[in-house]
Design brief:
Number of domains: 3
Radius of gyration: 23 Å
Structural class: alpha/beta
CATH superfamily of the largest domain: HAD superfamily/HAD-like
Number of helices: 11
CATH class of the largest domain: Alpha Beta
Strand content: 5-15%
Number of strands: 8
Helix content: 40-55%
Strand order of the largest sheet: 5-4-3-6-7-8
Distance between the termini: 31 Å
CATH topology of the largest domain: Rossmann fold
Length: 295
């Protein structure tokens, strides 16, 4: 049964101004459409609701706020229509390239890998803020060169091996099963990554998960790296869905902050048990790994 708002003496009327919201709303049962409408109302204060015709009374605000907050929480608990995954660090282990050649690198392999990843991300942010275009493969090579220099040096042949390994990173063990389960539920599943199209094609092929995605989206058409809003818009445009109906998942807390600012429902995959940050752009859900999505 749909929402049945009433007013004393009978009759209902539509109000477009939030200031005219009524002091009481009688609800027998919230429909999915009304839950979604109230969730939007809380977010942007522009939903159109069926309301009591009398002016909003001061003591009615908590009642309306509780109703709409409850509706928003209910929409957040609904299954997403699409799951949008970051690739590097979320689906694919960025440290597996160095780990694969750890015997040749020596005991400093983890230090080298950490520097490589840190500089790779830093170079994307600097290019984006400076308005300078670069490919992700370019910044990946530049970051490795810095990491090699900072950690004592490597020969050119080992550098080439590390770059080749980065094109075929290991997927985390739970990835195939989780992606398959989400698709079995009828959800759309996609990657949205800083990676170049060719890099992403290599990654999904080598991991054997290429048939589990409805789309593999690179930032390349946006001409900028995450967390620029127009990168996240690539996903909403691809599926024709509002961001609130999509779940964005990343192991990178800064990526979650950008996605939350854009309007996605966000899931932080905190694989490393790191402390939280960006309190004004909090993740909606925090998981240790992807298995929590289907638990």
């Amino acid at each position: 049964m749909l929402l049945k708002p009433q007013r004393a003496g009978g009759g209902v009327e539509r109000a477009n101004d939030i200031g005219l919201l009524a002091d009481t709303i009688v609800v027998e049962k919230l429909s999915i459409d009304w839950v979604a409408a109230c969730g939007k109302l809380v977010n942007d204060l522009q939903s159109v609701c069926w309301v009591h015709s009398s002016p909003l009374q001061q003591n009615s605000e908590p009642t309306i706020a509780r109703l709409c907050m409850s509706a928003r929480l209910e929409t957040q608990s609904m299954p997403a229509e699409a799951y949008i995954f970051d690739a590097y660090g979320t689906l694919f282990d960025v440290h597996s390239a160095a780990a694969r050649h750890s015997a040749e690198i020596g005991e400093r392999w983890q230090v080298l890998s950490d520097i490589w990843r840190t500089k790779q991300l830093e170079y994307t942010w600097v290019r984006s803020l400076a308005g300078q275009r670069a490919t992700f493969w370019q910044v990946t090579q530049e970051a490795l060169d810095f990491a090699i220099a900072a950690s004592g040096g490597l020969d050119a042949a080992l550098r080439d091996k590390l770059l080749s390994a980065y094109r075929e990173l290991d997927a985390y063990p739970e990835v195939p099963g989780v992606l398959g389960a989400l698709r079995a539920q009828g959800a759309k599943v996609a990657i949205l990554s800083n990676g170049d199209p060719a890099m992403l094609a290599d990654a999904v092929r080598s991991a054997g998960v290429g048939d589990l995605f409805d789309a593999v989206l690179s930032v390349e058409p946006a001409g900028i790296f995450k967390p620029a809003p127009r990168v996240y818009e690539l996903a909403t445009s691809r599926f024709g869905l509002p961001p609130r109906n999509m779940s964005f998942l990343s192991s990178n807390r800064w990526d979650i902050a950008g996605a939350k600012a854009y309007g996605f429902c966000t899931v932080w995959i905190n694989r490393g048990g790191r402390p939280d940050e960006y309190p004004d752009l909090a993740a909606d859900t925090v998981l240790d790994d992807l298995r929590g999505l289907i638990a």
